[in-house]
Amino acid sequence: MEFQAGIIKFIQSFSSPALDYFFIFVTNLGSEGFYFLLIPIFYWSINKKMGIKLSSALLLSMYLNVMLKEITAIPRPIGYPGIRSIYTGSAGGYSFPSGHTQGSTTVWGIIMAHYKKTLVYILGIAIILLVSLSRLYLGVHWPQDIIGGIILGYIIVMVVINTDRFKFPESASAKCLMAVIIPVVLLVIFPHPDVFKHMGMLSAAWLGYLLEDHFIGFEPKNTGFLKTASKYIIGAVGFLLIYVGLKKILPAGNISAMARYFLLGLWLTAGAPYLFKKL
After folding, report:
1. Residue 216's closest CA among 136, 257, 276, 130?
2. Using CA atoms, how far apart are residues 105 and 154, in angstroms rounded to an integer?
3. Does residue 70 carry a pLDDT above 80?
4. How confident is the model at residue 18 (pLDDT cuts 50, 70, 90)?
5. Longest dimension (CA), the chain
6. Which positions ≥6 away from 37 have C-beta within 8 Å?
7. 218-259 pLDDT, tens per residue?
8. Using N-to-C axis directions, what is the helix angle for 118-137 and 17-27, rounded to 10°?
9. Could you give the dihedral angle defined by the CA atoms of residues 38, 44, 50 and 56, in that order, rounded to the nearest 10 degrees?
10. Are 260 and 242 in contact, with CB atoms under 8 Å apart?
11. What's the rounded Cα separation, in Å, for the pair 230 and 36?
12. Three-state SS string across 103-132, please?
């Protein structure tokens, strides 16, 4: 690890209080909380299919990331001689691969592949690189974690953007069954506490998407800035009430966490769209 430690030390040789704050801000662009703000924008205001594709890819990416971290069990550089680690609250679990880097590559890779515009490419690549650099600057990941996160994120993007070639069941009941069975099977294979949350949300997002399409028929529309912003604020408040409020009410444990994230998924794809349709 000495060579990798040398890379981190070189990056940190440019450190300053201003850069500390900058990279703490940047690293949060690769956090779960940021994606919970970003993905609803697509689902509620731009394109439902894009929204469900992003949420599905991100949740499956999180699943793979947690699994690989537990399998490899590589310690983080936190505490390594000569490495300064700050904002360690963003560094849970083992080190390889970097979840922030993998998630950023997955989400922005899909966005770039969808829009294929120069400005989107510039924005997406810049965020992926800056988030990756932030994990090294903050001293919470090794360079190999960053490389692994980018490679895995790219693989996930390639799979997701080619899902249209796959043949899925035609009947709604079969699709609903798959929306339950697939997350449950993944949970049984790897019953990690984080997987309870992510698979609960994935199942609910898929079920909500199918139910909304059949019973509600919500379509994102460009209704002007004020109406769009108002809609997003209402949806975000509901999201926050479930995410934070239920955490304080429900008892601690995997089942409670799974139930909370299940409701988050339903709110994203069915609850909020139903409310928007009525309003």
Report:
1. 276
2. 6
3. yes
4. very high
5. 60
6. 236
7. 988 767 778 888 889 999 999 999 988 988 898 989 999 999
8. 120
9. 70
10. yes
11. 17
12. HHHHHHHHHHHHHCCHHHHHHHHHHHHHHH
- 3-state secondary structure string across the chain: CHHHHHHHHHHHCCCCHHHHHHHHHHHHHHCHHHHHHHHHHHHHHHCHHHHHHHHHHHHHHHHHHHHHHHHHCCCCCCCCCCCCCCCHHHCCCCCCCCHHHHHHHHHHHHHHHHHCCHHHHHHHHHHHHHHHHHHHHCCCCCHHHHHHHHHHHHHHHHHHCCHHHCCCCCCHHHHHHHHHHHHHHHHHHCCCHHHHHHHHHHHHHHHHHHHHHHHHCCCCCCCCHHHHHHHHHHHHHHHHHHHHHHHHHCCCCHHHHHHHHHHHHHHHHHHHHHHHHHC
- In terms of average pLDDT, the best of 36-45, 58-67, 235-244 is 58-67
Residue-averaged pLDDT of the chain: 93
Residue 96, number of CB atoms within 10 A of its CB: 21
What is the crossing angle of helices 99-115 and 32-41, to 10°?
20
